[in-house]
Design brief:
Largest sheet: 8 strands, mixed
Strand content: 35-45%
Distance between the termini: 25 Å
Shape: globular
Radius of gyration: 15 Å
Number of strands: 8
Number of helices: 4
Order of helices and strands: EEHHEEEHEHEE
């Protein structure tokens, strides 16, 4: 099994079926339209197409996770989330680094993502990994107050 070191005594590893309900709960708390168990189960059934990386402690308590989608020479960051108590401690960066580490050993040439235009912390993290804005999608993310936020579409080259 692959294993990466993360800050604060955490480690990163591929998700498994035991993580499904934990991932769904975290995602539903963090996003207005959080994913359900069946969506995570579907992704886990295709680990070579949709790998999920989990940051957890030695008791397997999940601090955050990331889901990628791989299609030929491109990767898409579908979601990344870190539990509030772990935010600002380098967990998101460690998750991205683990994903990049895997992708550099593959045929992947570029990675894409979408991020809420108001999420300054995430945009700063992505810029550190070489992501550049390539377009916008106004009104893409529905918010709890009924408004919609703009998605910034970003890309980075893997080579």
């Amino acid at each position: 099994m692959k294993l990466w070191i993360a800050p604060a005594g955490l480690h990163i590893k591929p998700a498994n079926g035991d993580h499904v309900s934990k991932l769904a709960k975290i995602h539903q708390r963090g996003f207005f339209h959080g994913w359900k168990d069946n969506e995570f189960s579907s992704y886990l059934s295709r680990p070579h197409q949709t790998p999920i990386y989990v940051a957890s402690d030695k008791k397997d308590r999940v601090a955050g996770f990331m889901v990628l989608r791989l299609i030929k020479e491109e990767a898409e960051l579908l979601t990344i989330i870190v539990e509030p108590k772990w935010q600002g401690k380098g967990v998101g960066e460690a998750l991205l680094r683990a994903g990049f580490d895997d992708l550099l050993a593959s045929q992947t040439l570029a990675m894409f993502l979408e991020v809420d235009s108001n999420n300054e912390a995430a945009k700063a993290l992505y810029h550190r990994f070489g992501f550049k804005q390539i377009s916008e999608r106004p009104g893409y993310y529905p918010l709890k107050d009924g408004t919609k936020a703009t998605a910034i579409v970003m890309r980075t080259d893997m080579v």
